[in-house]
Amino acid sequence: MLRNFNLNLNIWPPSNPRALIRLGLGVLIAANLIAGYFVIRPIGGSPDELRQQVIEMRIQIHQQQGALDRMRQLAEKIKTGRGEGEDFTAKYFLPRRTAYSTIMDDLNQAANEAKINPRETATDIVAIDGSETLDMMRITINFDGSYADVIHFINLIDKSNRMLIMESLNASPQQGGTRLNVQMKLDTFVVEGGSST
């Protein structure tokens, strides 16, 4: 004989204790399913995924620390280079206001020591492309002296505390003598507002 099942799905509000128990069991089953899901797939990842993330983060931290150390070393080298560049400029580049007199004093002193006879001298200041503070001073000096005196003069210029670049040297013998007529072109650098040393 077939029983007639009456599935009364009207569970809310519970009308009898059985309905209340069913509702409680349904809530517990749903809570267990949700809890089971979070056991299998925890929030933030499984322990293996979390370990892998920790390893990756440590690698990234190590790489970033290495990059930071390299940047610090580079910044220190730039600072050192800037300081050395300023020292070089202060030592070898003459201030524009006193460059002419300083160079002429040095050349006259070297000429007296080498026993050569200086004659006319010309100077010209040329701007250096790409620099707002540096210029090049070109010096053309004419003098006469013996071969040994000219060599001595060149050695004195070479050992000078100034940065003098010899661009050219033309020597021709004087008629009927052992002396040479010499034209020498020198270059040096001058800086706006530099300190005289």
What's the CATH class label of the domain at 94-191? Alpha Beta
Question: Which percent band covers the strand fraction?
Answer: 15-25%
The helix content, as a percent range, equals 40-55%
Look at the structure and name the CATH superfamily of the domain at 94-191.
Ribosomal protein S6/Translation elongation factor EF1B
Shape label: rod-shaped
Average predicted local confidence, pLDDT: 83
The CATH topology of the domain at 94-191 comes to Alpha-Beta Plaits
Based on CA atoms alone, the radius of gyration comes out at 46 Å
Order of helices and strands: HHEHEEHEE
Report how far the terminal alpha carbons are from each other: 124 Å
Structural class: alpha+beta
The major β-sheet equals: 5 strands, mixed
Q: Uncertain segments of ≥5 residues (pLDDT<50)?
A: none
Describe this structure as you would to a colleague.
This protein is an alpha+beta fold and 197 residues long. The protein is built from four helices and five strands, in the order ααβαββαββ. α3 (96-114) packs antiparallel against α4.
Characteristic key phrases:
alpha+beta; 197 residues; rod-shaped; 4 helices; Alpha-Beta Plaits
What's this, in brief?
The chain is α+β, with helices and mostly antiparallel strands and 197 residues long. It has 4 helices and 5 strands.
